[in-house]
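In the current project phase, the collection of sequences with tokenised folds has grown. A representative record is quoted in full directly below:
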Amino acid sequence: MSPADRLRAMAPALLRALSPRAKSLIVTVFGDSIAPHGGDVWLGSVIRLMAPFGLSERLVRTSVFRLAREDWLDGQAIGRRRYYGLSESGRRRFQAATRRIYAGAREPWDGNWRLVVAPSTGLGPTERKSLKRELDWLGFGAPAAGVYAHPDADTGALSRLLDEHGLRDHVAVFKARHDSADLEGLRRMIAQGWNLERLDSAYRLFLDRFRPVWQALDAPGRVRPETAFVIRSLLIHDFRRVILRDPSLPDELLPANWSGLAARRLTRSIYRKLWHEAEHHATAMLETAEGPLPELSAEFFDRFGGLTASGLRGTAA
């Protein structure tokens, strides 16, 4: 069996293994393949794009309508067709996720921590639950009651969170620094504040699923555009489900042999091999009210530390 045929056979096997929900998979495709172009796309072309995943027209329509109700997407009617693009709220959520999913190499940790302290008065149970959920999303752990901590927090995202949820007057935010070169106490605190064992297991499962994809890609041969699109989408969908639960702790504080590092390297390697042919398929399928998709944004090419077309064409075309 040729490498191209092996990859083509892997796509339905990966789809069965992941068994993604339609709405969640459409979110992945919008974030990975549609949002970098901008503009609104015709719903009929989204239905066409999602067909290789086994999603029916009715299921795609229902999922897109629900995403619009949940303020991920905005829809507009032009003639007899409906077109959908990211809402303002959806754009902010995609931008926050994009920074984490497609990050390149990180700077060394500077030793600083960001602490969010919620006093015992001022917030009711519902507000405290909301605060914890939102800080979990940003990777904060809770090493003690009412105290949330992160060693490399996105301070801009934290500021926006506090403003959007009206919490700025109810919590205190501190910048702190560990006063010892001994990291053992910090690692014990991290073990209490974050469930890294469960996350490491999820990364190992991801590696088991996608290492065979890399082995097939590493052999010479053409990758069919539709196959590249399906595998790239499933790769990011599975990686997204794990990385968005990852607190993104500095490498210095992670356990030895942390599987998240290998998972990011594998994702970067496969993505760099597939993105170009996957783009051929997505742009052939999708349609705006003005014609084809707009050109990719410059920011797209910063994904995973940098993408180039020239490094791919010898393998994929």
The chain has twelve helices and seven strands. The chain has two domains: 1-105+195-317, 112-177.
